[in-house]
């Protein structure tokens, strides 16, 4: 089904609440049907289309304008990583779809590649239905559902696959950060929460939140997970570093 569906649900006194528009991407029709049944039971989620491969997912994202693309990572032809890269690259201020990766194994090298490509998180295919629904809502709101600590564990395992860093050349964008922002980024890369960073630096949690927001804005990053990847790619953080 590729047609657009109307928004559903209400909020407040007669105020219409737009449903989260979801595109399902998986090469197994039965899995897509299962996901559709789960999601269509929710009043604030609308499945607007389905795709069986990455190339179709990119085209349907352009035409259907989903808020969230639920993306299988391993598919014949254009896989979920390449499709994610194209979707994120095509994103604009008026339509910036979020990609939620579906995978079978959490410690999978394909997962970190998908996160580097711009995915906002990943979810195991055998996760409970309520986790799937909640993940879509979180991603649609602009947050990531992969904890930075999990991202770091993945990066530690697959760090040798990341691009090498030239010690003589300053990492791109890093020189735009203040010393404090750079320090905060280092702590984010360790997988620490705002509260934990605040305790480490002896500042308020609000101050840390402001610093994190500045870091993301200056470096053009979508979320904290992307910040962890950036820290590893630039050599600011290294495997096994505490």
From TrEMBL:
TM region positions: none
CDD domains registered for this protein in UniProt: LuxR_C_like, REC_NarL-like
Residue ranges of every copy of the Response regulatory domain listed in the record: 21-140
Highest taxon in the source lineage: Bacteria
InterPro entries to which the protein is assigned, alphabetical: CheY-like_superfamily, NreC/VraR/RcsB-like_REC, Sig_transdc_resp-reg_C-effctor, Sig_transdc_resp-reg_receiver, Tscrpt_reg_LuxR_C, WalR-like
Keywords associated with the record: DNA-binding, Phosphoprotein, Transcription, Transcription regulation
Name of the protein: Response regulator transcription factor
Native source species: Actinomadura keratinilytica
Lineage of origin: Bacteria, Bacillati, Actinomycetota, Actinomycetes, Streptosporangiales
């Amino acid at each position: 089904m590729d047609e657009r569906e109307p928004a559903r649900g209400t909020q407040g006194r007669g105020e219409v609440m737009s449903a989260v528009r979801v595109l399902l991407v998986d090469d197994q029709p039965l899995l897509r049907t299962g996901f559709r049944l789960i999601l269509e039971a929710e009043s604030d989620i609308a499945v607007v289309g389905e795709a069986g491969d990455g190339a179709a997912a990119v085209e349907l994202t352009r035409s259907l304008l989903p808020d969230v693309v639920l993306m299988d990572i391993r598919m014949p032809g254009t896989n979920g990583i390449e499709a994610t890269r194209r979707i994120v690259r095509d994103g604009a201020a008026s339509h910036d779809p979020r990609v939620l990766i579906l995978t079978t194994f959490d410690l999978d090298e394909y997962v970190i590649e998908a996160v580097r490509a711009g995915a906002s998180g990943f979810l195991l295919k055998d996760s409970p239905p309520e986790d799937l629904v909640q993940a879509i809502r979180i991603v649609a709101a602009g947050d990531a559902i992969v904890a930075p600590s999990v991202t770091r564990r993945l990066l530690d395992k697959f760090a040798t696959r990341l691009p090498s860093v030239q010690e003589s050349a300053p990492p791109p964008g890093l020189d735009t950060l203040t010393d404090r922002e750079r320090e905060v980024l280092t702590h984010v890369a360790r997988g620490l929460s705002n509260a934990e960073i605040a305790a480490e630096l002896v500042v308020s949690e609000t101050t840390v939140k402001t610093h994190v927001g500045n870091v993301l804005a200056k470096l053009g990053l979508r979320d904290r997970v992307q910040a962890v990847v950036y820290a590893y790619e630039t050599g600011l953080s290294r495997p096994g570093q505490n």
